[in-house]
Fold these 2 entries.
Entry 1:
Amino acid sequence: MGVDHAPGGLPLVLGIPADGRPGSADLAALGAAEERLAGSARTARFPLCTDLPECRSDDGPMPPRLVRELYRAVAACDALLISAAEDGGPPPDRLLSALDWAGYPFGGVLTGTPAAVIGAGAEPAGGGGVRARLRAALHTAGARVVLPGAPPPGRRHRTAARLLSAISTTSTASEEETTVTGYFEPVSVGALKLPNRLLMAPMTRSRARGGLVGPATAEYYAQRAAAGLIITEGTQPSVRGQGYIDTPGLHTADQVAAWREVTGAVHAAGGRIFAQIMHSGRVGHPVLYPDGGLPVAPSAIASGDSMYTPDGMLPHPVPHELTAAEIEEVVDEFTEAARNAVDAGFDGVELHGANGYLIQQFLADGSNRRTDRYGGSRANRIRFAAEVATAVAEAIGPERTGMRISPGTPNGGITESDTAELYPELARALAPLDLAYLHVMEFGHREVTEAVRAAWPNALLLNPHPDPASGARTTESGAEALAAGLADAITVGSEWLANPDLDVRVRAGGPFNDPDPATFYGGDERGYTDYPRLDALETSGAGR
């Protein structure tokens, strides 16, 4: 037994069905993927993996003959595509053990090989299914695992395309070059064709006096127009949506006019920019509101945190619990702010469903104790997010609409008892809307990111959570996520803040300006528009 090699100079993808019996779901899924690869890759199969004998890498120096043939077949291919159904066929224990052997010793034939696992049947929420076990085995064996993504409505699965991208990157670049190549490939996000995948994450800067952005803000964002996409700081859709001092709004004519200067400057510099619409919910304070009223929330539960106000540090009060009619009004506020954003020249909007603000307050069972249609079950807690996204998408177009989420964040006093199940379910609930993207801000919980990726059909933006012990920059951990197919683009915060030419520095491998936390919030141009560009450093021979 061996592989059936197809002629040609294209890369070779080796398909392995966990169940190779005629008519099996694994063969059907593999055939569909091979059709997707036609013209871009050669395909071959190693069939009848159900006949593989038991074999583990620690059992001895010589595996059985059939396993040795699989080893040689894997060594001859450019990528591996395994098909395994979640709800049928024999368990892949023998295939798992063969993969274990193929990764032995470290540096075996699987090391660095792009590999993907597809198949029929939905994967269990939070992982633990057949395909998750296979991916874990591949990862342990050193393979470069390409994660799946749910197909958009009426379209084919994207895993095959991601596998091709991984082959291209692996075969044409060194590890250092892969970081650069991955970031500087174009990608489609909604209606936009982004020139690169190094995006600027939203960051509150508290420099909008009276809710109005000014010339310095236009300069700040225009300096960073080389980002594939700029997502602005959180911008309140109403007076009661404000959570911090001097944050901008999108609910008055003056605010729209002020933002128009910013978008004009970014577009003139060749950039693309989305407005992040952020309603802070209970993370606010009466001193911010002209009428001195309470902040609002799904339930009358205080965050337990404090915030900086014109009167110093003050605890967040117990918020006003929104009525059903008031919830409809808040949805309308989001919608009107989105229309205002388009009027101000933005390319689209991001709905802030992360960091403990209003949308996440509805999602989280620790802050949402409602007993009506907006509380209780996950479907009910998701309802507000879905209604906001639906209304905004209908108002400005789904291709102009994205949403940010942060599974498991403790920000704003958020607690969630069902993070692993909640966010994949949210992704599935939003999928029919065909939004431009989901934006995941990680707080650990990589397995939840993977589950969201599998459930979400369109572009996934990732603000990764580097291991603090590693000392890695976000751009470094982001490059790894891109290479693994975990995300379509990476959002970067403080590195863009401190390096207006971050794209140039990433290509060059540095050096990088360090951000100054003392100037993150409020103030003047210091720490805002005065970070030097690399060409200025080279001219002066100085650094920040």
Entry 2:
Amino acid sequence: MQIDLSTIAVTIMNIVLYLVILILICKGIKKIENFINRNKEMDKKIDIIMNTLKNKEKNLD
């Protein structure tokens, strides 16, 4: 049985493309996780600022 070189080349290209797509999906997921973590940190900081402002308002009254 004879296998053409073009078949081997196309198979290798498909494997490489699948690997590239998998790597891109993983990087995208990591970026989304980083974005979510940054937003959580910002929410915590904003809550701290809001609480200090509320405490200052209560002390002024």
